[in-house]
Model the fold of this input.
Amino acid sequence: MLNPKISKLLNDQINKEFYSSYLYLDMSNYYYDNNLKGFGNWFAIQTQEEYAHAMLFLKYMQNNGEKITLNAIAAPGLKYANLKAPLEEALKHEYFITASINDIYAAAYEVKDFRTMQFLDWFVKEQGEEEQNTDDLCKRFDLFGSDPKSLYLLDNELSTRVFNPPSLVI
Ligand code: OFO
Done:
């Protein structure tokens, strides 16, 4: 059994990860609609990663005998003003998720829940990578996004991204 506060935070995180998956699917659709299939693919892979993250939190709770409550997933509902906007929104969202993971970590530290801290270590590192990748994409868009030929090449490159399941085993 986990501390009830930790259990609630972990349960909430399942929803946040599913929401992340849904949000990135919306961004993927946006790029497909705008004929940037590589960007669409990049976000479709993000969608898969976030779904996998949700399932890791779910499995961790199950392994600890915790009851899971699946709550409604909010509609992304974002309107994108231009082709860069989803990238900026994605980066903002990653900062939000990082803060959320850090909050769970701090709460686990407070109640000496070392098992949950160890579980979260992987996510702390993962968030660092996610922020870096998304920030990198924003910067590359700044460099190449206004030139059609360069944008075409960047889009082609992003179309080669494939899904690698998380290395964390629960
Ligand atoms: Fe779930 O990794 Fe980013 O948000």
